[in-house]
Structure formats: C-alpha cells, structure tokens
Amino acid sequence: MTTSQGRFPGQGRSRFPEVWGRVPPRHKNFTGRTDQLNELRAGLLSQVTAVVPTPEPVVPRTLHGYGGVGKTLMAVEYAHRFRDEYDLVWWVMADQPGLVRSSLAHLAPHLDLPGPAVTGVEEAANGVLEALRKGEPYSRWLLVFDNADEPEELNDVIPQGPGHVLITTRNHRWGGVAETVPVNVFAEHESVEFLKKRIPRGISGEEATELAEALGHLPLALEQAGALQSETGMSVREYLGLLSERTGPLLREGKPPEYPQPMTAAWQLSVAKLQENLPEAMELLRCCAFFGPEPIPRDLFFPVDEGRVRPEMAQLMSDPIRLSKAIGQLGRYALVRLDNSNRTVQVHRLIQALVREELDEQTQEDIRLEVWSLLSAAAPKNFTDVSSQTRYLELLSHMRPARVAESTIPEVREFGLNMLDFLYTSGNYETASEHAQGFIEKWSSDSGNEDPHVLRAQAKYANRLRDLGRFTEAQDINRAILPSMTRILGANHSDTLSVLSGRGADYRARGDFWKAREHDEEVLRQYEEAFGPNDPATLRALNNLALDHALTSDFGGSQARHERSYMLFKRVGPSGGSPVLLAYWNALAQAVRLSGDYTEACDLGEDALAYGRDQLGVEDPRTLRTQVDLAIARRLSGEVEEALDLGQDAHSRYLRLHGIHHPSTLAAAMCLANLWRMTGELDGALELAEDTDVRYAQAYGHDHPYKHGCTSNVALLYRLLGDPERARSMNESALIALEARLGRNHHYTLAAATNLAGDLAALGDTDNAARLGQGTLRRYRALVGEEHPSSLACASNLVLDLRAEKKSTEAKELSDHTYDAYVRALGREHPFTGACEENRRLVADFDPPLL
C-alpha cells in the first residue's frame, strides 16, 4: 500500500500518541521557527513510501547548526506540536552511538515485543527496527535522534518503514545522507519576541533589540540572559554594561570557535550572580559538568559512605532541602534543564564545556573523582531485576563522558566490571566488548598487565568475544591470563576458576572434544572442593562436563549429568526468568534426544520452549537455541511440518539478530537445510547447506569436526540429487578427517561412514557398501546400543546391501530383528519404522550443537 499525499492516512485526527517516550518537556517560551516547522512537516509528509514488504529507504530530516542555536528545542517543539499526528513518538540520545540500541530496545515493550531485560539489548533493538519497518502495531511513528555525530555510526539503526525520522546534529556530513534543515540564530523579530516572553516584568522593543544584537541572536545565550534578568530583576542597561565588561577578556582568552562568544559572556554573567546568591548551587553545576550531557537522575546526589566527595558537595547532599533549592536555582537561571516527571537534571554540553574550562586542573580532578564515587555508589549490586537494569542503563550513558576507565580507585573499577556483567546479562555483547577493551587499555597502562582488575576485565572480554563467535581471540586471551590469575588471585579463586572453565569452552570451539572433557573433569573437581557440589558455579561446571560427554559420544553419561545440574539448579536457583535454568533444561532435552528418545525430547523441549518464551521472550538467544533443538527433535520424531515451522522461524530470527556468520545462525541454517531435505526441497537444501558448510569453516576452522559433519550433509544432498560420485568423494574426505580428529568410534565418524556406504551402493559397489556397513554397525552397537535409532538405521541400510549381494538369509535375519527393534523403540507409525519395512534407505544427517 502506498500513500500519495503523505505517509499517514487519516491525518488531522485529534489524538495523542499511543506511545510517548523520552521526549523532553516542551519549552514554555519557545518562539518563532514557525515557517521552518511547517517546512519540516511538509518535507516529512512529501515522501511516498511503500509499506512492507519492500519499503523505500527513509530519508531523515536533519536539523543542522552549531551549539546553542536551538536544534534540540526545535525538535522538541516539533514533537509536541504535531504529536496528535503520530501513534508513537520516541526520543533517542544519539551522541554516544553505543547507547542508541539501548534506547531503541526500551521501545520494545510498547510494541508488544520482549524488552531488553528479557532478550538483551541487541535482540530487543533489532525487533523494534523490524516492527517499525513493518509498521506493526504502529505505522504513524516519529523517531528523533538528538545530537548525532557521524552518519556511519547510525546507518544501521535508522529505521525503514512508513514513519518519520528527525535528526539533530552539528556535523555537516549528514547533508549527504539526509534532507538538511539549517537551524540558524533567531531573526531579530524572533529574538525580541522571545525576550518579551522570557522577562515577564516587561522589556521594551528597543531594549530587546539591543540586547539580542549584543548576544548575536543566539537562543541559548538569550535564554541565559532572560533567566538572569527575570530571576534578579536586573535591568537591561545594567546587563548590557556587564556584558560589555566581559567581552574583552573573553576575546583575549581565545575561546575555541565551538564556544560562541555571546554564549560565553552570557553564561559568565549567570554564573557570577549564582555564585553571589547561592554558591552551593554553583558547586552542584560543576559536579554536573563532569557527567554526560544526558539526563542525570537526581537521586544520584546522595551522601555516600565511602568515596571522594568534596566537603561542600557532601554538605549539600546531606541536606535535601538545600539540595532541592540549589537544583531549583540552577533551573531558574537556565543553567540546567529539569524534568520533574522523570526526576532528572540535564546540562547542555556547551555549558558543561564552559564550566570545566574555567576550573584549574586539580579542581577538575577532584570533581571527576567525586562523579566516579557518585556513579559507583548508585550502582546496584545485582543487575538481573528490572529496576536494577534500568539504573544501570541510566549510569551507562555517563560512563564515557565521566571517563570512568581512567579511575584507579578499586570500587570504581568494580563498578566498571559490574557494568560489563550488566551488558552481558542484557545481551549487549558489542557494547560490553568495547567497554572491556577500553578498561583493559587504560587500566593496564596505569596499573600494569597483572593488576587483578585488568586480568578480570580481560577474562570478561574473552567471554564476550566467544559470544560474538570470535573463538581464536578468546582462546588466546584465556591462555595468556590464566597463569597470572593463578599466581596472583590463587588457583581456587572464583575468577581464576572461571577462566579455567573458559579454557574448556576454548577446547570445544577448537574441536578438541576429548581434551575438553578431560579438562572439565578436573575443573569440576576443583569447583567441588572450593565451593561444594551444589553451588551454582559448581553446577555450571557440571553442565559443561555434560556437554563434553555428549560431544564424545557418551550420551548416557551426558544425560545423567544434565539431569543432576538441571534438578539441583531448579531446586536452589530462581524459578522465574532464569536463562541459566532454560539452558540446563534445553541441554537435558538435547541429551535425551541424542540418547534416542525422541518423544521424551520433544516433551522436554516443548516445556522448555514455553518457559523461555514466557519468561525470557521469543527472541532471547537461549529461547531460540531451545527452539532449534526442538525443531530437530520434532523432525526426528516424524513431526516434520511442525519442525519446519519452528526451524524457519528460528533461522529468520537469528539472521535478523546476529547476521549470517554467527555460529547460532549457522546451526539454525543447517537445521533448516535438513528439514528442507526431508520435505523434498532438495535444491534449496543444497544451496543452504553448501553456503553453511563454507561459513562453518570460517567460523570454526577448516578442520573442525562441525565443518566435516556439514560436508557430509552436503554430500548426502548430492547423492539424492543424482550425483553419487561427487557424494562419495566428499564423504570419503569427511570420513578420513573425522577419523583423524575424533577416532573411528565417534558418532560423527560413524554417521559419515553410514552415508558413504549409501554412496557406494548408489554407485553399484554393494560389496564395499556391505563391508563398510557391517563394520559401522558393530561400532554403533558397541557405542550406543543395538536399539539406538542410529544403530537401527545402519542395520536397515545394511539389509539392502546384503540383499544386493545375494546374502538373503543374513539379510532376512537382520531385517526381522531391525524392524522389531524399530517398533519397540519408535513405534509402528514412525517414518523410520516405515522406511525399514518398505526397504527404503535411511540417512545419518548432522545437526551441530552450539558450543
């Protein structure tokens, strides 16, 4: 559907947005800009945009101008003036690109999507962008990105779809990617009108003109001047006299060009008067100048038990009445912007810069220490409940402007490390890794590479790299820091054991499954000695060891360990909204499936998926992992259509959330290729499987078992499409490689051998097919038992090859035994039982688990 007169059918309805979020309060003295606002509205409406599935690119409108000219105020006015034309209006502070996704993520619940506390920031933000693209549930939306810098930093978060995007910026480079609306200083009549509104006791037109001229018609300077005169009763003539006295020194000081001289002069007059009337308010403003330009929660200004707070600020914060008076005075002098509904204080970045520049180096250092103390004292000790996550997000926007990474104070560094944990918990892996890098570089420079905080930051950075699929980098870091952590923190320290446990994950990522198992057995022993058998950290180690047992073909041992970790954690851990519980639950379902009990695996997987969707959200990574595993179990239980729905949905979500190269996306892609093969979509399955095979080599390495397993899947498709010679060649290579990495008795190796026997039979070499099948069957039975579905599939195929070799008696005996075992294991109605009865060849496909 398209609209020719504008994006929004039914314009002009008198109504307020369903969603109105984070928009600053309207300025009560907003003046002028009427023509520009109307032009802006007309420009936004002029775009003809197709609604999904193929929306044309949104062309943002950019309000461009230098600091203090009123870009943000104009955007605020537009949002308020035209709010009844939108169903959704959302404000995004864009000066820190790493936090933009966090702001978008918090829009998710308003779109009936899981929020960041449920799915993590990345997933929630991507869900929001997709919902805006589709125009569901709102097609009339407005997003404002305030104080944007480089266009490249926001390209991937500018939503497409039927709505409007408005950007404020000082960077002229936006002119190449957006329709620019220049915002200049006021025209003379606008300046006069503004001053007459701002100074209620009255000001003549002549006085207003003279004052506006002296201030260069700069809106922020006019606001400061009007506030000072309104608050103090100072006459215009007196103000102009003081202003002229300040101008000479200011010009001689050579202020940078981004500080307009009229603004600087007006600011200094306000500061001088504030210092005279309420000096403690000036101390509060100085403190605010070392936060970021985003809103500062007022409750951060609270006495701290420990920290380096200046005596004058400590005294002010201990007296809530004086503190409120100081905040109110700053607001009346227009030095801060107050949002009483959200209880925040916000200082314009230009005022912050001017305040900081007036201070000597030692005072700057003292105030920066003070801000670090306030930030760290305000951080909750946990970051899993909603209120704690909200607080951490408020603090996150001040991390870089406050230069937290520069601190050497232990409690401030602990705050930084806790912020990394919060970012991981909320799913914001990229931002977590960026902050971790910053901490490591600065802290190691200041304190050396073996400082405990540096080592812990490196450990957290390695974990985030692994989450991002950067396995080799994670492995290199863990290997480098483990000796130092052992020596400095001790072998049984929780952080040391965590890194030691990470080495097991590194071995799995390299495909060294047996080494990982041996390693994790020792790690579990150390955890049990240090913390006891039922501690949550010990249960994580037990869960890791259970994964190792599955990867080394000990399905029974894996299931037993997963049962223990799941049941004990369920008994002592949180019952609601626990990603750990879901991970253990799904791991148990996976172990049951690998043991051959597909029905029980489906039942467990259904319960786990319902829990994940309800408690964590449909796009939480652990929920999606559960969905992929359930799709595999459904496929193996014969419920192919249900499995296909699950697999296609999970793959599309992973593509959107993580991109095509992420290991989670690759696992979902191979699951989907196997499903398409079973539904007869062989060409599509081959194309997807070949692409995934290549990407597995890129993700894990060319000699990883997963890569060889994927190659066997591709070979299987070539045989089904009529090219058994190519299939044989590929399966022979995969089999040789798997034997070298895992041995002849691993279930991946045996699966490739099963498929190679099928290739040989298709080429007419039934003698070698039967020989290979007989050896493979012996090994399968020794490994997983006679009635495991993998053993039965191998036996059923061997029957066909024995018959081809005229070994009827042997074939008949094996056929009867195999069919009866299929009936007992899977039931008469199962497709695998039917294939055995109807003499159809079965296959051994590969589903790579996530490591």
Count, helices? 37
Low-confidence stretches: 1-14, 48-55, 250-254
Q: State mean pLDDT (0 to 100 scale).
A: 87
Largest sheet: 6 strands, parallel
- C-alpha termini separation: 44 Å
Outline the structure in words.
- Helix content is 64%, strand content 5%.
- It has 37 helices and nine strands.
- With 851 residues, the chain is mainly α.
- α24 runs antiparallel to α25 (579-594) and α25 runs antiparallel to α26.
- The strands form two sheets. Strands 1-3-4-5-2-6 form a six-stranded parallel sheet, sandwiched between helices. Strands 7-9-8 form a three-stranded antiparallel sheet, with helices on one face.
Please describe the structure with a list of short key phrases separated by commas or semicolons.
851 residues, mainly alpha, 6-stranded parallel beta sheet, 3-stranded antiparallel beta sheet, disordered N terminus
Helix and strand topology:
Layout: E1 19-21, H1 34-45, E2 61-64, H2 71-81, E3 88-93, H3 97-105, H4 116-119, H5 121-134, E4 141-148, E5 164-169, E6 179-182, H6 188-198, H7 205-214, H8 219-232, H9 236-253, H10 261-277, H11 279-288, E7 296-297, H12 311-317, H13 320-332, E8 337-339, E9 344-346, H14 349-357, H15 361-378, H16 386-396, H17 410-425, H18 429-447, H19 452-467, H20 471-489, H21 494-510, H22 513-531, H23 536-551, H24 555-572, H25 579-594, H26 598-615, H27 621-636, H28 640-658, H29 663-678, H30 682-700, H31 705-720, H32 724-742, H33 747-762, H34 766-784, H35 789-804, H36 808-826, H37 831-837
Helix pairs in contact: 3-5, 6-7, 6-8, 7-9, 8-10, 9-10, 10-11, 11-13, 15-17, 17-18, 17-19, 18-19, 19-20, 20-21, 21-22, 22-23, 23-24, 24-25, 25-26, 25-27, 26-27, 27-28, 27-29, 28-29, 29-30, 30-31, 31-32, 31-33, 32-33, 33-34, 33-35, 34-35, 35-36, 36-37
